[in-house]
């Protein structure tokens, strides 16, 4: 039983002082419509030409100085992760990923 004592102490502390993981999940603020398609703006360090648009699922690509802005609709979280993997595979440092609400778009 001594082998498990540190782990049991941590579990007891978490459940007693901070609630269970499920309780913390329930207390988290909910984001409306976070599971469907949404518009995203992804900024990476480095320059990509517009010819990369097809590889990024038809998203708009604009090089501005030392960064590239990739914008467009992403079908779901899985598709977003796929885009981020492509950015990683190109070796481009990720600067930001922003979900753009429709009223924020110009």
Core attributes:
Alpha-Beta Plaits; 106 residues; 32% helix; alpha+beta; 3 helices
Annotate the secondary structure layout.
Blueprint: H1 5-18, H2 21-27, E1 38-45, E2 60-64, E3 67-74, H3 77-89, E4 94-100
Antiparallel strand pairs: 1-3, 1-4, 2-3
Label the CATH architecture of the largest domain. 2-Layer Sandwich
Integer average pLDDT: 78
- Write down the secondary-structure element order: HHEEEHE
Order of strands, main sheet, comes to 2-3-1-4
Helix content: 25-40%
Round the Cα radius of gyration to an integer and report it.
Answer: 20 Å
User: Could you name the ranges where pLDDT drops below 50 across 5 or more consecutive residues?
Assistant: none
Strand content: 25-35%
Number of strands: 4
Describe the protein in words:
The protein is globular and about 45 Å long. The chain folds into two domains: 1-30, no CATH class; 38-101, ACT domain (Alpha-Beta Plaits). The mean pLDDT is 78. With 106 residues, the protein is an alpha+beta fold. The protein has helices spanning 5-18, 21-27, 77-89, and strands at 38-45, 60-64, 67-74, 94-100. Strand 2 (60-64) and strand 3 (67-74) form a beta hairpin. Strands 2-3-1-4 form a four-stranded antiparallel beta sheet, covered by helices on one side. It is built from three helices and four strands; from the N terminus they run ααβββαβ.
In a few lines, what is going on in this structure?
The protein has 106 residues and is an alpha+beta fold. The protein is 32% helix and 26% strand. The chain has a four-stranded antiparallel beta sheet, with helices on one face.
């Amino acid at each position: 039983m001594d082998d498990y004592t540190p782990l049991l102490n941590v579990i007891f502390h978490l459940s007693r002082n901070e609630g269970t993981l499920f309780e913390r999940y329930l207390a988290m603020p909910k984001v409306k419509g976070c599971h469907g398609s949404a518009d995203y703006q992804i900024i990476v360090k480095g320059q990509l030409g517009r010819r990369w648009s097809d590889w990024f699922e038809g998203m708009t690509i604009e090089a501005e100085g030392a960064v590239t802005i990739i914008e467009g609709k992403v079908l779901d979280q899985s598709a977003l992760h796929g885009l981020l993997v492509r950015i990683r595979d190109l070796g481009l440092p990720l600067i930001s990923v922003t979900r753009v609400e429709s009223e924020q778009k110009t």
